[in-house]
Design a protein that fits this description.
With about 200 residues, the protein is mainly alpha-helical. The protein contains six helices and no strands. Helix 2 packs across helix 3, helix 3 packs antiparallel against helix 6 and helix 4 runs antiparallel to helix 5.
């Protein structure tokens, strides 16, 4: 047993009387613990992985697709109204639109191919699909870095209007939630199926 598995075992949740683990998918630590300790073929591990996938779909995939159109609309308004302002986040709306388009394609691949493969226990193609998603995650990190640069680390100028402030708050939320979404997949879900911790 590896050091990581031993550390995880020390914080493992206890099963109920029926031997099942009723874990809240939002409690990512408990889900991670379970998935690290059990193979994809284990029925309870399959149930926990499925619950985590459902959590990712509702808490992140759906939320991102609602946040981006709102952020793009706010950015277009701020860029139009404050075009003469030296602090204006020029190009922000276009960058957000590019991010939204690429994220929609990424999520579609997960929803149509990778997640169904995982729900069926993985299989020989799952590692290839995971590697592709991880490469796309690295692209998202670069896009988030650019987002932080354009918004000056999500900090509007002192005299910014409410719309500009709302835009920066929403961009900060997008950054935080995309990073957590990717962490759940890269650190918990993907290693369970890729066979590495």
């Amino acid at each position: 047993m590896t050091e990581t598995q031993t550390a995880v075992l020390n914080r493992a949740p206890a099963p109920d009387a029926a031997g099942r683990f009723d874990l809240d998918p939002g409690d990512t630590r408990a889900v991670e613990t379970y998935l690290v300790l059990h193979a994809p073929g284990d029925l309870e591990a399959a149930r926990q992985a499925g619950a985590l996938i459902d959590h990712i779909l509702t808490r992140y995939h759906q939320v991102h697709m609602g946040d981006f159109p709102q952020a793009i609309a706010l950015a277009r308004k701020v860029e139009a109204v404050h075009v003469a302002d030296a602090e204006c986040p020029d190009g922000l709306a276009d960058h957000l639109a590019l991010m939204a388009d690429e994220l929609a394609g990424h999520q579609r691949k997960e929803e149509m191919a990778l997640f169904p493969m995982m729900r069926q226990g993985g299989g020989p193609m799952v590692r290839i699909a995971i590697a592709r998603m991880q490469a796309e995650h690295r692209d998202v990190v670069e896009q988030l870095t650019r987002l932080a640069v354009i918004t000056k680390d999500f900090t509007p100028p002192q005299e910014a209007c409410r719309t500009w402030r709302a835009l920066n708050q929403l961009c900060r939320k997008i950054d935080r939630e995309l990073r957590e979404h990717m962490r759940l997949e890269d650190a918990i879900l993907f290693p369970h199926f890729a066979g590495s911790v």
